[in-house]
Amino acid sequence: MSTLLAIENLTVAYGAVEALKNVSLEIQDGDVVAVLGANGAGKTTLLKAISGLVPIKTGSITLKGADLSQYPAFRLAEMGIMHIPEGRRVFATLSVEENLNLGAWSVRGKIAPQELQKNLDWVYQLFPILKDRKKQLAGTLSGGEQQMLAIGRGLVSRPRILLLDEPSLGLAPILVSEIFSVIRKIHAEEGVTILLVEQNARKALGLADYGYILETGRIALHDAAAQLRENEHVKAAYLGGGKLR
Ligand code: ATP
Fold it and tell me: Considering only CA atoms, which of 174, 189, 178 is closest in space to residue 129?
């Protein structure tokens, strides 16, 4: 296994407020890495820094050794860094199919139309409900379906790494399980590398290979997910003190 993404001593600031302080993190090819932390810990800022949406103050982010700081966000997307932001942002007045087609902008013209169709078919196979509703306006989908569409749109370009920001936020428990099982499938069947930001620590650590705990902008702890599940601090602060099911 080799390192896909490496972050070293990353500091990101909003004015005088440092949201990330000397954060270092590594993601191996094909792994699912979870980032856990309370509200305001800096999780979203971390994803935004990787996808070029906020500037880096100090430190570095590299993809297979290539320094990413020189590229704008659209170039990073073309390089295979796909950020699915929090809040299921879909284009409400476009159909499901049109939303998915927009997800292919970063690869259009670079891959054959048949390849693109194959990617779309893969997304429809992962989310059969999207296929059933492909002509329906995205704004009329349920919250869970919109989240599936947001993830599906990110997958159409077959990214090298998927950055998922709180995919389960605000969803009913049954849909949370469904979203996690699809993430598991994306990983298991296609080996897509995933950086998963979640408040649902139990589910995230049940799925991930490795995890980082972010506390007020710093990495407080990192370890194999199986180890974190047994860690007393993690149990007390993030898993409600109970044992993982
Ligand atoms: P949440 O789970 O609530 O989304 P988070 O862990 O994703 O939290 P961030 O959104 O990355 O945390 O925020 C980290 C810190 O940076 C917080 O103190 C937040 O108030 C601050 N912050 C985030 N965005 C901005 C901004 N645009 N301008 C100023 N401060 C910001």
Answer: 178
Measure Cα distances from 134 to 11, 69, 100 in Å: 42, 37, 9
3-239: CATH number: 3.40.50.300
Ligand 1, atom nearest to 41 Cα: 6
Which ligand 1 atom is the nearest neighbour of the CA of 166?
A: 2
The one-letter amino acid at 186: I
The string of pLDDT tens digits covering residues 41-63 is 999 999 999 999 999 999 999 99
**Most informative mutation of 11, 17, 164, 196 for ligand 1 (most atoms within 8 A of CB):** 17
Model-wide pTM > 0.85: yes
Domain borders along the chain are: 3-239
Candidate of 14, 53, 198, 213 to mutate for ligand 1, largest count of ligand atoms within 8 Å of Cβ: 14
Report angle CA 7, 13, 18 to the nearest 5 degrees: 90
